[in-house]
Specification:
With 285 residues, the chain is an all-beta fold. It is built from 1 helix and 17 strands. The chain is globular.
């Protein structure tokens, strides 16, 4: 609802039910039955105030689930555009609700939603009429992350809430679109240095990254027109080195290794026809 030309309100509500049935002969859920269901309701409200100094966005979402209780997450944003330059500051919260299996395999301590707080600061510059460069700094902190664990003695698996985790980093992106085609490229970097970590995801030899996730990532994709609709569409993905468990030693302990950097490149050449787009060649490396 537009209260005035500069004040806008958005409101919404939703309700849904999760249902599961175990089709095995003896399988049961946490209620000791082969069927289980949970009911969820949510309400959302956001206000936008446009002002010559800065635009203000304030909002929040409230959820209530019949199994794990309630969760509230607020949102605050400030945006400003000065000629060809724009700025954005965003403080937002989010949560991930436990799924049916998370609840079914919870420990005696119980399970609850994990909550995430995100701080973002973005600046962008329109370099030309058809090109844009943006840089985004972020800081993420998650409370009570839901983690899958296996007991080393009983070998029973379960889901628990495990302390806190988070990361911080920077992302940069450049986009351009012209008559000859378009392309975009982005770079992302993250670090967990100085953040609390989930023990199962830590890397002993490197406190700045988490298991399986590369610290650096580069993406590129584009489409270039050649002749009468014929176009070449290249893409490229680069990931820096990662750590992973790759084997088990003689004592039965998992062995962690540093995997080398990897990349994936693809070139797709196509030409539109009256009926469909025909692919002439695909090259992958």
């Amino acid at each position: 609802y537009n209260i005035t030309r500069k004040i806008n309100l958005i409101a919404g509500a939703e309700a849904y039910q999760d249902f599961a049935k175990d089709l095995s002969d003896s399988g049961t859920f946490v209620n000791e039955k082969n069927k289980i269901s949970y009911f969820n309701q949510a309400y959302y409200l956001q206000g936008l105030l446009k002002h010559r100094i800065v635009n203000l966005i304030v909002g929040g979402r409230f959820d209530h689930n019949s199994a794990y209780g309630s969760a509230f997450v607020p949102r605050l944003g400030l945006t400003k555009k000065i000629k060809k330059t724009h700025f954005k500051f965003l403080y937002s919260n989010a949560f991930r609700a436990p799924s049916i299996e998370n609840i079914n395999y919870q420990t005696d301590a119980g399970i609850k939603s994990e909550k995430t707080r995100v701080l973002e600061l973005e600046a962008g510059q329109q370099l030309t009429r058809n090109s844009l460069l943006t840089v985004n700094l972020y800081d993420i902190d998650t409370k009570d992350p839901i983690v899958y664990v296996v007991d080393s003695i009983t070998f029973l698996d379960s889901y628990i809430n495990s302390g806190r985790s988070g990361s911080r980093g920077v992302e940069a992106e450049f986009r351009i679109k012209e008559k000859w085609g378009y392309f975009f490229t982005n770079y992302a970097f993250y670090t967990v240095a100085g953040k609390e970590k989930v023990e199962d995801y830590t890397v002993e030899d490197n406190e700045s990254i988490l298991l399986a996730f590369p610290a650096h990532k580069i993406n590129f994709s584009g489409s270039f027109k050649l002749y009468k609709g014929l176009s070449v569409n290249p893409s490229f993905l680069f990931r820096s080195s990662r750590y992973a468990y790759t084997s088990v030693d003689d004592s039965g302990s998992s062995v962690m290794e540093q995997l080398p950097a990897s990349y994936l490149s693809l070139i797709h050449i196509s030409e539109p026809t009256r009926l469909r787009r025909i692919s002439y060649a695909v090259f992958c490396l």
